[in-house]
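note to self — DONT lose this again. spent like an hour looking for the file last time. sequence + predicted structure for the chain T wanted, 510 res
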Amino acid sequence: MPAKLLVIGLDGADATLLRQWSDAGDLPVLRALRTRGVSVALTSPPGFGDDATWASLYTGVSPAKHGRYFYSQLRPGTYELQPFADADLKRPPLWESLSRAGRRVAIIDVPKCPLADDLNGIQLVDWSVHGHDHAHVESWPRSLAAQVVAQFGAEPSNVCNRDLDGADDAFRDHLLAGIDKKAALAAHYLDHDDWDLFLTVFKESHCIGHRCWHLLDPAHPQHDAAAAATLGNPIKQIYMALDAAVGRLLERAGAETTVIVFSPLGMSANYTGEPLLDEILLRLDGADAVRTRQRIARIESVWQRVPFSIRQRAHHRLDWARRRAHYVATRRRRCFVLPHNEISGAIRINLVGREPNGVIHPGAEYDALCTALIRDLRELVNLDTGTPLVQDVIRTREIYRGEHADRLPDLLVVWQRTAPIASAGSPKIGEILKPHPFGRSGDHIYRSGNHMPNGFLAASGPGIVPAELAVPMAVTDIAPTIAAFLGVRGGDYDGTPIAAITPTDRMHGE
C-alpha cells in the first residue's frame, strides 16, 4: 500500500483567526491537528494576490517563471488585456509530474489552475471555487464532470461577488450548504481509490472573508452592529463548519494517512488606494497626463450615460470604443496601471522594445523612472490620518527572477491598510479624493475584506514530530514537500521540501 497524503486547502482563511479560534476550542479538529503535528506560518509572493499565490503554490516557482499574477493580463506585445488561459501558464502543476512518475492523484477544485490533458487519476476544475477560470466545470477524465453534476448538483453559484446588502443569513447558509456538498463530494472520491495524493480546496472561507469582514471588525466603516448582533459571527460560523468538514475527511482517510491543512493567504479589512493610483500617476506625469485624463473622462462619461439595457446589447462594440480610447491614451504615457487585486497597485513602465509604443528606454532611464516613482509614492499620505498611504513599493525585477519576468508589473504598490483610504495627497500631486471611498462604484461594491499575506499550514501523520516551526514556510515549498513525501525526486522548484513534514522513513520511493 503506497504512502497516502491528504491535502486540504481552506482558501482565504486567516491564520490569526484560525489560531485564535482553535486555541479557544472552537475549531477542535484544527486544534488537534496542531497539537499532534507541525504548524507553521505560510508566506506568499510579496505584493501579489491570490492568482499569483495559487499558481506559485501548485507549480513551486515564482510568478516570474509561471507567468501568472492576475486573471486578466496584458497580451504580450500589446496594450490589450486578455483573460489568463490554461495555455498561458508557463510551468506545469505539481500533479502532472507526480502522475508521470506513476503516482495516483485526485485533484479537486484547486483554484486558478489548468485542466490536465491526461492524468493518472482524476481532476475536477471550477465546480466550487472562488473565481472561475473556465466557463463551466471541467474534468479529467472528461466524463467525470457530468458524473459530479448528476450526483452532487451543478456548480454552486458564486454569490459572493455582489453588493454588501446580501451579507445576511441567506448568504451564510448558502456557503454552509456548499461546505456540506464539497465535503460529501470529497469523501466520495476519497473512498474511490487508493490515492497517493488527494488534494481538495474549500472556497467558503474566501467568500465569507470578502463579504462579511465588516461584521467581524467593529472598526470597519461599514460595520453594522445590529446586523452583527442578529447574525452572530458569520466568519466564525463558516470556519467552524469547515473544521467539521475537515474532520469528516480525516476520519475517512484513517490514522495512517498524513494530512496537510493549509491556507495560502489571510484576510483583513479591504482598505485600498487602488482606485486612486491612476490619477496619482497622471498627476506625476504632468501636463500631458491632464490631456490623457480628459480624453478618457470623455469616453467614460458617454459610456455612463448610455442606458444599461443598451450597454448590455451593444456591450462588445461600446467596450471596444472604451478600450480603444484607453489604448490611445496609454501608449503616450511613461507608465500606467494594470488590473490587480486591490491589496496592491500594479504599475507597468511603457518600455521601449517591450511595449508596442514604448516611451522609456531600458537601462538608466528605466531605473531613474522607477526610483522617482518609488520616492514619490512613498511621500503620499492618507489625508484623513496623516499617515503614509503606502507600506512598500516593490520593484519586481529585484525579487522575481525568471524567464517570464517581463509579463509582470514593474512596480507593486502595497497599501498601508491600518485605516480606511478615502483620499491621498503630497506636495507634488496635491489632494485626491476617492469618489467611492469604501469599494467599487457602478456595478457592485462587494468586498469589505481582502487578502493579507497571512497564511497557515498544519501537518500531522506517522513520523511527524509535533512542533510549531519558527521559520515561515513559503507557498513555493508546498509542491516540493509533497513531491519529496511521495518519493518523486527532481523537479525545477524555487521552494525546498520541509524536512519536518517529510520524515525519511515515510517517504515513498520510486
